[in-house]
UniProtKB/TrEMBL annotation:
<feature type="domain" description="Ketoreductase">
    <location>
        <begin position="25"/>
        <end position="200"/>
    </location>
</feature>
<dbReference type="InterPro" id="IPR020904">
    <property type="entry name" value="Sc_DH/Rdtase_CS"/>
</dbReference>
<dbReference type="InterPro" id="IPR002347">
    <property type="entry name" value="SDR_fam"/>
</dbReference>
<protein>
    <recommendedName>
        <fullName>Ketoreductase domain-containing protein</fullName>
    </recommendedName>
</protein>
<dbReference type="Pfam" id="PF00106">
    <property type="entry name" value="adh_short"/>
</dbReference>
<comment type="similarity">
    <text>Belongs to the short-chain dehydrogenases/reductases (SDR) family.</text>
</comment>
<dbReference type="GO" id="GO:0016616">
    <property type="term" value="F:oxidoreductase activity, acting on the CH-OH group of donors, NAD or NADP as acceptor"/>
</dbReference>
<dbReference type="InterPro" id="IPR036291">
    <property type="entry name" value="NAD(P)-bd_dom_sf"/>
</dbReference>
<dbReference type="GO" id="GO:0048038">
    <property type="term" value="F:quinone binding"/>
</dbReference>
<keyword id="KW-0560">Oxidoreductase</keyword>
<dbReference type="InterPro" id="IPR057326">
    <property type="entry name" value="KR_dom"/>
</dbReference>
<keyword id="KW-0521">NADP</keyword>
<dbReference type="GO" id="GO:0006633">
    <property type="term" value="P:fatty acid biosynthetic process"/>
</dbReference>
<dbReference type="Pfam" id="PF13561">
    <property type="entry name" value="adh_short_C2"/>
</dbReference>
Length: 293
């Protein structure tokens, strides 16, 4: 399936980028073992990037790497918890050791931990800040020596940071005070990077996703969970059908009439990382199918 997808993508490459929009560039993608992250890793590889598949689940990350390699792409896996203090050094070090340079960081790793505000513990609130704010900040800071380049030859290359946010961070959402605060913080972090690193020709943008079909928007049940520090956290939305997100088709509040797919989310990230967005920085791109306009 991956090979067919890469072939389909390759057939649509523009004449200006016959080897791919990211040919020869190096991209780190966190949370890349499944969902939007996995789709982004596969798409970036199809567009010629050397991909670093970073994820908490090392085995699944390696499976994505093998999928990319079988399709003719280049990738490595770096397993580990993005919130661990030593992970940024491990991630950036492995990237430079394998590929010698770095062009893009896609901070996609994250999850939800929903509670109504009046019943939410400090731990539940602060965990969202840790994974969505502190972790990306540390990874970006660790990469600074490779992105804040002074060499004109490096400055002229395509380099970017894309931080993943959510419409919850832009508009708030019931039961997501922690997630909404964290995702709003992502926007502030992105704008600051764009102002501080613009002089080095590093662009920083945010993608704010609406309803995309992933495990975070599937039904909330015992099989849909993530384990953090030995504690199982249920993901998804209570009462949403049978837990199979890909069977959801009707969305009357979305002008396009349906939720988005992980592949469509990946394409938005690709656009912001690619030379097609060479004069876009500090922007928040809402990918919602028109929902909330």
């Amino acid at each position: 399936m991956a090979a067919a997808r890469l072939s389909s993508i390759a057939s649509h490459l523009t004449a200006s980028a016959p080897k791919g929009l990211l040919a020869g560039e190096v991209a780190i993608i966190t949370g890349a073992a499944q969902g939007i992250g996995r789709a982004t890793a596969i798409l970036f590889a199809a567009e010629g990037a050397k991909v670093v598949v970073a994820d908490l689940d090392a085995a699944k990350a390696e499976a994505v790497v093998q999928e990319i390699k079988k399709a003719g792409g280049t990738a490595i896996a770096v397993g580990g918890d993005v919130t661990a203090a030593d992970y940024p050094k491990k991630l950036i070090g492995a990237t430079i050791e394998a590929f010698g340079s770095l062009n893009h960081i896609i901070n996609n790793a994250g999850f939800t931990f929903d509670k109504m505000l009046h019943t939410m513990s400090d731990e539940t609130f602060e965990l969202m800040l840790k994974v969505h704010n502190t972790a990306p900040f540390r990874i970006i800071r660790e990469a600074a020596p490779y992105l804040r380049a002074k060499d004109p030859a490096v400055i002229s290359t395509n380099r970017s940071i894309v931080n993943v946010s959510s419409t919850s961070g832009l508009h708030g959402n019931v039961g997501q005070a922690n997630y909404a605060v964290a995702k709003a913080g992502v926007v502030g972090l992105t704008k600051t990077i764009s102002k501080e690193w613009g002089a080095f020709n590093v662009r920083a943008n945010t993608v704010a996703f609406g309803w995309i079909l992933t495990r975070l928007t599937a039904a909330k049940d015992s099989d849909n969970s993530i384990e953090i520090d030995g504690k199982k956290i249920a993901l998804g939305i209570p009462g949403r059908g049978n837990g199979k997100a890909n069977e959801v088709t009707a969305a009357p509040d979305i002008p396009l009439g349906r939720p988005g797919t992980a592949e469509e989310g990946a394409k938005a990230i690709l656009f912001l990382a690619s030379p097609l967005a060479s004069y876009i920085s500090g922007h928040t791109l809402e990918v919602t199918g028109g929902r909330g306009i």
